[in-house]
Every structure is written in structure tokens, then in C-alpha cells.
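User: quick one, fold this
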Amino acid sequence: MEMSARVRTLGYFTLPVLLLVACVLQPAPVRAQMTSVGIECSQIQSLRLMEQENMRAGRALIECGIVKGGQPSATANGPTAPPNIRVSNRACTSSQSCTKSENMAGASTKNGGKTIVVNYNDSAGDGSTYSGASYSTDGGATFHEIDPRPFENGHGFNLGDPIVIFNSKLGKFFAGDLVGDCGGQGVGLWTSLNGKTWTVGACAHNGGADDRESMWVDNEPTSGTYGRMYISWGDYDQNGATSVTHSDDGVTWTTPVLLNSGNPFIRNVQITGSPRGAKRFEGNNSTVFVAGMDEGGGGLSTRQNIMYKSLDGGVTWTSATLGPRFNPPGDSTCGYFAQVNPIWRHMGWGEPGVGPQGVVHYDYAGAGTGQDHGDIFYVRSIDNGKTWSKPIKLNTDKDGPFKTQWMPSLSVDLQGRVTTAWYDRRSATSACNAVTDAGCKYERVGRQSKTNGKSFLPEFAISTGIIPEPAQDDPFVVGCYAGDYDYDTALNGNAFVTWTDGRRSVGGTHVQDVDFAKVPLP
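Assistant:
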């Protein structure tokens, strides 16, 4: 049931019943004080306010702490959820062959974002490949999954971990995955002029143990590094150190620069850069940023957000910490990883983005207070990454058990219009039970800013309905998996948001799909 429908059902009850239920749920001591409606809290019993159905009585009971006032929902005061389009739309013969998640979206700047490519993990269920890609030529109204899979050939075995961007200077898409023929487990690329047909490209890095790569391109025409592409990853041949390489033509890639030593281990989260404006502060090149996370040894240990910065096109780097250490999201653990039950392994990683005037944005997930195991937090820098604000919580529901939020994404456009999105279980009324799906259903929820992060508009639902928890039945994929990240982009007045969706059922089992929504910017 959608949240708005849940709210409407309250109309079947009378106010006295609601007040009585609320009082039972949250008893509180009566305080001798005067309320804003002229009733002292000591008069609640003598005036029999619990029986009255008028708004004045209800207001007094709220202010005296006897009942709760209404709580903001994800749909309250926000825009209507945009159409949800299934990106990964190939047929599945069984739930074991239908694990499609973890994605990145790229859009062409040559036709105003009409051509969109989504690269994602797509397991066939037999361990033969983990790659999938879809394209749209109508701005995201429809998507076509490419068959045969374009990234299965040319670089050997495909291990997933998708990246995709559009290079405005070169006029083509670049997409990549971890592949076997680039050193054993390196970063292989493919290129396309139209998003539909693809050509095997270069090995951006020949590595034996690369992991979790990310990619960004400098599409700012006035930048001294216009058209330069950057890829960051965790290099486990170098103790897991975060590494960065760049290229101006997509063919020749530089010797990697190590941003840390790997001791302590700092995860490569995502690379991004300034679209414009930052060079007013520091030089003529766009600034490049890599978000990292010190995971404290894994599990539910405390975390530390770190941001690396380069002012000279990826040659040299500095770093800054973003606020204090924090407790991560998660109900339990899955080996090294924290886990949002039953299958979402998630360490709190988010997505950085850079708006105009050198304002840098980052959202991430951390533990809430008490029994709340996940909230979404946001920090920003107004001086091109030198100093950072204190974290604020983006989800406005009150902390409580079962109300987990996790795995945020973020995009920002040239006008400083920010779109954040995350998975949200605020409508849950019980703990997640994977057998009955009780408490496991979720939504994709968003929140936007039209002031370059200075203030945010109310939350809204991006998914058009409550999403059933998908299973992970693929024997060749770890059980605690529904994707490790969802990376979005913004272009031509819209944010392109993708996520793992469980609304399709195959053989009676809800499976993992990649869904897309074009969210208008405020």
C-alpha cells in the first residue's frame, strides 16, 4: 500500500479513537503548562480532552506530549512520482537467471539527453557473464536492452562493476567493466557513437585485482582539461589503495597515481569533478574529486568520509576529512560487509557531485539514533572542497526501529539543482522477514535543492509504489547482494535516477531489475 493510501485510511476512524490509540502507543506524563490554544496541561482530565474530536483539543494533547502530531511522509508536499521505466527488460526463464542490479547512467550532451545509456550488472544465472546494458533514444521514455550483450566480447570474461559516461569533446560514449583480458581483473572499455552499437576499446588499466572502479569526464568547454576522462578504483595488487588514471583520447591512459597506501584501507567510492565555476577559485582546470571511506576494518565499525582533490588534471592530489567518524547503517553483517537485512550489503557509501561556484556535495548513509539502523546524511563545501559543513539528515521521518534508509545517490546540474535519492523503509511496521516480506518492502525516495545545497525541498517518492523485496537466487552471486551502488546524472533540466527494483515476479519469486525515472529539476 502506498503511503498516501495509508494516510487516507485514517478517514475510517474518528478522531477520539485515533487520539486514544496514539495515547496508548506513546504514553507521556502530563505537564502543568499552558498550551498555545489556552488550555493548561493539568486540565486534560477535567476537560475530558481525550474524548473531544475538535482540533483545539487535539492541538493541546500534542503540545502536552500526550499524542504525536503528524509526521512527514515521502510524498507529502513533494512532486508526483515520475513514470518508472524498466531498463533491464529481457525475459528471464527463472529467478536464478534474473539478477540485474548495480548501475550507472550516462546521457548524451549532443541531443539534450535524448540518448541515455545504463550500464549494469546482469547475471545469466550460469556464471558465464555479469554484464548488461540498455539504451534509450527518447529521453528515457522507453529502454531497449541490447542483445547480444555488448560487453561480453573483446576483453574476455566480464566481471561487472559498470561505468559509463558521454564525452562531449570526442562525441561518444565510453563504458566499462572489470574484465579478464586486462591483466586478469582490470578495467576494460567499449565506445559508441549512438549508445546502441559498441566497439571494443582500450584497457584503461591492466590489473590483476582491481575493484569498484568509477569514472568521470570533464565536459566543461572552458576548462583547460576539457574532454579528459578519469577512472578511479581500488587496486588490491597495491594493498587496496585507491588509484586514479586519466586519458584525453580514451586510448592511452596514464600510469596510475596512488591516493593512499592501503593501510589503513580507504575504499574508492566515486570520482567526480567541477562542471564550471571552480576554476574561479583555483586555476583554469576543472577540479577533480574522489570520495573515499575509511571503513574501520569492516562490519559495523565506525566510518570516516574522506575527499581527495586534484587541481592539475589528476597529476597531484590532496585530501580532507568530512566531519567526524560515524556509525554505519546496517542490521547485521555479511562477512566483511555491513548488511541491511535481508540481502543489501552496504557500507554507507554515497555519491559526490559538484555544482557551480565551487560548491561540492556529498550524501552518504549512517546509523540513526536508538534502534534506527540507517539514515541519509548530506555535507557540502562552498570553497571547492577546502572545508566542509556539518552533516544534516535528509530523510525527515523520525528515527525508529524498522525505518531504515540506505544507499544514496546524488546528481547536480550547472544551475546548482541537486537531486538525491535513496532506498527507504519508513512505511515498514515490523522487522524485515524475508519469508513473508513483512517489513522488507521499500521505496526509492528523493529530495532536491534549487539553491546549490543551501536548503532542500520536501521529500517525494520516485518509485510509483511500494516495492517488494527482491530475492537473490543466483548460485553464482553472493547471497547478500542487490547491487553495491546506483550512480545518477543530471542533464537538460532532468535528473536521471536508477535503482534496483523488485516489482517483477518470475515463477512466483520477485527478482532484481534496474528501473529508471526522469525526475524534473526544481
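User: anything notable?
Assistant: Residues 220 and 370 are 45 Å apart (CA to CA).
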